[in-house]
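Chain A, query sequence.
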Amino acid sequence: MPLSIAKTGQKVRVFAITAEQELRARLIALGIIPGEEIEVVLNSAPGSFVVAVKGSRVMLGEELASQIQVV
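Chain A, predicted structure.
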């Protein structure tokens, strides 16, 4: 499922990133990589997402969140 439909407080594992190469590289630099567990801190759909990954919080737009597949 896309990260964009995950609920606030839900813990999910990144399965795949379908974004273009430049955005994929940025996500990888932020620690959002396949296999990594992340927690949805805030899902204010439609709007921004805040996720916790490796002890940091990262804000993502809804379009980018929809390009991150999670399980």
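The first helix runs from residue 21 to 29. The radius of gyration is 10 Å.
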